[in-house]
Amino acid sequence: MELKLKAELREGHGKGPARRLRADGKVPATVYGHGMEPLSVAVDARDLFHILHTDAGSNVLIDLEVGSDNHLTLPREIQRDHVKGRFVHVDFLAVRRDVKITVDVPVHLVGESPGVKEGGVIEHQTWEVRAQCLPGDVPEAFEADISGLAIGDSVRVSDLRAPEGVEILSNLDDVIASVVVPAILRVEEEVAEEELAEAVEGAEAVLEAEGATEGEAAEHEAPPGTEAGSGE
């Protein structure tokens, strides 16, 4: 996905000029990459918000218009004010259409697991996968199919299908998601096993005690002049 965004050159650096820009509804930004001199620019906060909230997320290609120049870029180092939720600063990495880039692509789970229907739960462990491709080939997401997972099964990075021209760089053995027994059931099973083990130990102790008692009784019942256990 490629979208257009206008930017204006900005003068002055530091907290004061940056605060004034944000007060005017703009976001301070920097454009860099491919040996170019970094450019200090500003973009409209609302336009940036809409661009970054497409399905492509932060992997959206942006045709950044700065005066009479255009730069093909990817947003990087997006800083936000976590209290007010507004953008504080953003970097735009200039890329070339004919040079491959490395990106982190989200992983979405698709399908319905039979293991979940049997009472299991999904543990989603890997949320992004690193990939390499041309800027125009960056996928919005990889889909991990969980429709064949029973309890105890997993889907791994090696199970993903990469589009043509996209190479997955992440470890192929990494687990993306697993179907596991719910924690509460695991605890109940462990408690039940412990109780069973205790019951077995108690029963064995009782049998040993009864055996010892029977042995003592046999000794007391032995005829006079003989020893218990003797063959005489």
Q: Would you mind describing this structure in some detail?
A:
This protein has 232 residues and is of the alpha+beta class. The radius of gyration is 34 Å and the shape is elongated. The relative contact order is 0.11. The model is unreliable at 228-232 (pLDDT under 50). The strands form three sheets. The chain has a six-stranded mixed beta barrel. Strands 10-7-9-12 form a four-stranded mixed sheet, with no helix packed on it. It has a three-stranded antiparallel sheet with strand order 8-13-11, with no helix packed on it. The chain starts with a strand and ends in a 12-residue tail after the last helix. A hairpin with a 6-residue loop joins strand 5 and strand 6. It has three domains: 2-95, Ribosomal Protein L25, Chain P (Beta Barrel); 102-179, RNA Polymerase Alpha Subunit, Chain A, domain 2; 182-220. Helices cover 25% and strands 37% of the residues. It has helices at 15-23, 45-52, 114-117, 183-220; strands at residues 2-9, 26-33, 36-44, 61-66, 69-80, 87-94, 101-110, 121-124, 128-133, 142-145, 154-156, 167-168, 175-180.
Question: What structural category do the secondary elements indicate?
Answer: alpha+beta
Strand content: 35-45%
Low-confidence stretches: 228-232
Total E-strand runs: 13
Q: How much helicity do the residues have?
A: 25-40%
CATH class of the largest domain: Mainly Beta
